[in-house]
Amino acid sequence: MLYWAPNGAHACRCTKRQGGGEMNMTTQDRHETEKLLTPAEVAALFRVDPKTVTRWAKAGKLTSIRTLGGHRRYRESEVRDLLGGGH
Amino acid sequence: MLYWAPNGAHACRCTKRQGGGEMNMTTQDRHETEKLLTPAEVAALFRVDPKTVTRWAKAGKLTSIRTLGGHRRYRESEVRDLLGGGH
DNA sequence: ATAGATTTGGGTAATTCGGGCG
DNA sequence: AATGTCCGAATTACCCAAATCT
């Protein structure tokens, strides 16, 4: 009578990124191991209306991933680049 | 001692699928070697609530495999296709 | 067999979508 | 051209207790 748990909870995170470092990912963001942000979160970071974030996505200024229901999700790394990359 | 990996090999190979080239699999993967994801894992990838993933499965938007106890498991390949394929 | 985490099921708020207007 | 707001409809998030998984 012992635990039989050959497999854990699948905490597979593949290549965990180090904080702050700017890792050059593949040209196209093919890695789905990216943290995603909701429209409200991105809007709060930029201090704009969520609708404005949606317009940025529609204009191609921001990469958007869609849920199966049509809601948009945004890549955290891209947002942080745009926020901190004030050039 | 019997080692059986119910949820897949958990090797986290992170194979880099190079530009657009998709494997020539038949329509569906008939082997049981397909890695399955738990609702929480799929939810984390899409940045949604696990219950939302359940709704997608009920609506037929996502293929679900049921455990003998009724819990759902999802095909990793399908999830990845939906994440990156639907630009 | 016990424990802790996860999932399921329903129900009800909170977001988001899309279009159009100012 | 770029934002913010109003509207209805759709999607998603959080609440609970019971069942299932590791």
Automatic annotation (TrEMBL), chains A, B:
It comes from the Bacteria. Coiled coil: none annotated. Residues 36-83 form the Helix-turn-helix domain. Pfam families: HTH_17. CDD domains: HTH_MerR-trunc (cd04762). NCBIfam families: excise, HTH_BldC. This is Helix-turn-helix domain-containing protein.
